[in-house]
Amino acid sequence: MVGLIGIFAVGLLAGFLNVMAGGGSLITLPMLIFLGLPVAMANGTNRVAILVQSVAAVTSFSRQGFASSRLGLAFALTTLPGAVAGALVAVRVGEGTFRAILAGVLLFSVFGLLAPSRQVGVPHTDSRRANAIAFVAFLGIGFYGGFIQAGVGFLFMLVLHRLLGLDLVRTNVYKVLIVLCLSVPALSVFILTGNVQWNMAIALAVGNASGAVVATRVSVKGGERPIRIVLGVALLLMAGRLVW
To answer: Rounded CA gap, 61 and 58, in Å?
Structure first.
């Protein structure tokens, strides 16, 4: 019981981080592995929490008047083929490869998000070209999301915030919808291959969902400032973990 309460508490923090910035799974995945789960089962167990968290976040944003557009749904559906392929690879990959790919992608995310960007909230000079690039990027990120999930929020923010110029509140609205859609087929693969520890998954899911709801309210009421603060802290923690 004490262990499940601890998992819930970590999930609460992870759910808040995932919606506000990203990187919550970088806390939960190592925790599940530390608790004795094999890499594939830790990965699958974490997916249950991500799915429940995403449903809670999308619902909360919608109730506050921030429903995703058709373009957001189109972006989300683009990730599905990659998500299935990534999950199929994830249940077979070795631990060394898993960690090496995770470190490489996260390092790219850290530098990308810290780099100077153009003004956001202003339409791209060639929106069709930007959208086309975004669709291709989402297909690839979908594979990574199905494969590892940890840090995928940073990658979506790179495309939505940097490339498409969306403000951070709208970026988060799109991001949680996209993660929700890619989580369904990815989690299905882990369930069908028996890679979910359900007691831990439920405790983590309740925590993640609770943190996600709090994050949506902070995001909408506070605008970009609290998102930037949380994002900055998350990036510092990410950089520290990569160095360590």
So the answer is: 5
CA 112, CA 106: separation in Å to the nearest integer? 10
Task: Return d(Cα 222, Cα 220) in angstroms, integer.
Answer: 6
Distances (CA, A) of 23 to 86, 120, 146, 148, 150: 18, 22, 15, 12, 6
Q: Are 21 and 109 in contact (CB under 8 A)?
A: no
CA-to-CA separations, 241 to 45, 157, 169, in angstroms, rounded: 22, 20, 27
Cβ atoms of 94 and 43 within 8 Å: the answer is: no
Residue 206 pLDDT: 96
Token pair 């990659």 in the structure block, residue: 82
pLDDT digits (tens, 9 = 90+) for 201-236: 999 999 999 999 988 888 776 655 665 566 566 656
Return d(Cα 170, Cα 224) in angstroms, integer.
10
Residue type, 109: S
What distance in Å separates the CA atoms of residue 58 and residue 173, rounded to the nearest whole number? 7
Domain boundaries, the chain: 2-243
**Buried b / exposed e along 194-217 (16+ C-beta atoms within 10 A):** ebbbeebbbbbbbbbbbbbbbbbe
- For residue 40 the two structure tokens come to 């594939």
Enclosing H/E stretch for 242 = helix 224-243
Calpha distance 209→37 (Å, rounded): 22
* DSSP of 1-26: -HHHHHHHHHHHHHHHHHHHTS-THH
User: What is the rounded CA–CA span in Å between residue 36 and residue 40?
Assistant: 12
